[in-house]
């Protein structure tokens, strides 16, 4: 476990103060400090940040002075467009300095934060194998058309699974009596032609419009 030194110091200070209070010592300093508000610790110290990276000591930061990880939105932070970030600009735009997290970052998290290499390797293998399947032209990339085709295949597999599970009389439709779980809750929405049955086409269209909501019992715990 990692401990924050600042919190440790604060905790020690509080405990020491309590000890003095219990022992009755330090009354004069306590009285002198009474009424003074405790200054909050800043979440970000612009002066220290500039001091750390300001190589030419001009009191501002050029793009070249910043590490690459802080250059992502340099132009947005540099509001007056003079090619430097001033203290005021830094305080207002510090949240923009680093790039936002992306969904794909989970791959790096699995690699970097793993406490079970074998387990994480298995998860990464699943991702790797699926991406290779998406890359149907084998050019080492996944384009928009391949992604769409992959999504349609997932929807078809899910719809097939739901029909196999719910279509008890195998007539190619799901009646209100046969419906269960999410399909039952959204029955009237999915039954587009209002004939009292959900066809394969209707379920497929609903799955496209509500991704992730229509799941079979294999995807979620059964409802009692």
List the helices and strands and how they pair.
Layout: H1 5-23, H2 27-33, H3 46-53, E1 61-62, H4 74-77, E2 84-85, H5 87-93, H6 105-112, H7 117-134, H8 144-166, E3 173-175, H9 181-185, H10 187-190, E4 197-199, H11 200-209
Antiparallel strand pairs: 1-2, 3-4
Helix pairs in contact: 8-11
Write a concise synopsis of the structure shown.
By secondary structure, the chain is mainly α. Helix content is 50%, strand content 4%.
Can you offer a commentary on this structure?
With 224 residues, the protein is mostly helical. Helices cover 50% and strands 4% of the residues. The chain has 11 helices and 4 strands.
Radius of gyration: 30 Å
Give the CATH topology of the domain at 135-209: Recoverin, domain 1
Shape estimate: elongated
Give the rounded overall mean pLDDT.
80
| Poorly predicted ranges | 1-26, 217-224
Strand content: under 5%
Second rung of CATH, namely the architecture of the domain at 135-209: Orthogonal Bundle
**Oligomeric state of this protein:** single chain
> Percent of residues in helical segments?
40-55%
What is the CATH first-level class name of the domain at 135-209? Mainly Alpha
Q: Between the first and last Cα atoms, what is the distance in angstroms?
A: 41 Å
Please, how many helices? 11
CATH H-level name of the domain at 135-209... which superfamily? EF-hand
Q: What summary fits the major beta sheet?
A: 2 strands, antiparallel
Query: Order of strands in the sheet with the most strands?
Result: 1-2
């Amino acid at each position: 476990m990692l401990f924050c030194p600042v919190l440790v110091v604060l905790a020690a200070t509080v405990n020491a103060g309590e000890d003095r209070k219990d022992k009755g010592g330090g009354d004069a300093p306590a009285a002198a400090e009474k009424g003074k508000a405790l200054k909050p610790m800043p979440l970000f110290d612009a002066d220290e940040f500039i001091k750390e990276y300001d190589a030419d000591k001009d009191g501002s930061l050029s793009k070249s002075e910043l590490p690459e990880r802080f250059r992502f939105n340099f132009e947005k932070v540099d509001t007056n467009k003079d090619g430097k970030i001033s203290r005021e600009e830094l305080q207002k735009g510090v949240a923009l300095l680093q790039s936002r997290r992306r969904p794909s970052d989970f791959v790096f998290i699995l690699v970097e934060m793993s406490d079970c290499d074998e387990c994480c390797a298995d998860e990464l293998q699943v991702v790797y194998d699926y991406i290779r399947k998406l890359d149907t032209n084998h050019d080492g990339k996944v384009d928009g058309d391949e992604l769409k085709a992959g999504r349609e295949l997932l929807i078809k597999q899910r719809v097939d699974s739901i029909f196999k599970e719910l279509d008890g009389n195998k007539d190619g439709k799901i009646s209100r009596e046969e419906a269960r779980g999410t399909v039952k809750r959204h029955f009237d929405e999915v039954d587009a032609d209002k004939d009292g049955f959900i066809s394969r086409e209707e379920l497929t269209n609903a799955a496209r419009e509500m991704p992730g909501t229509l799941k079979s019992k294999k995807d979620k715990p059964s409802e009692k």
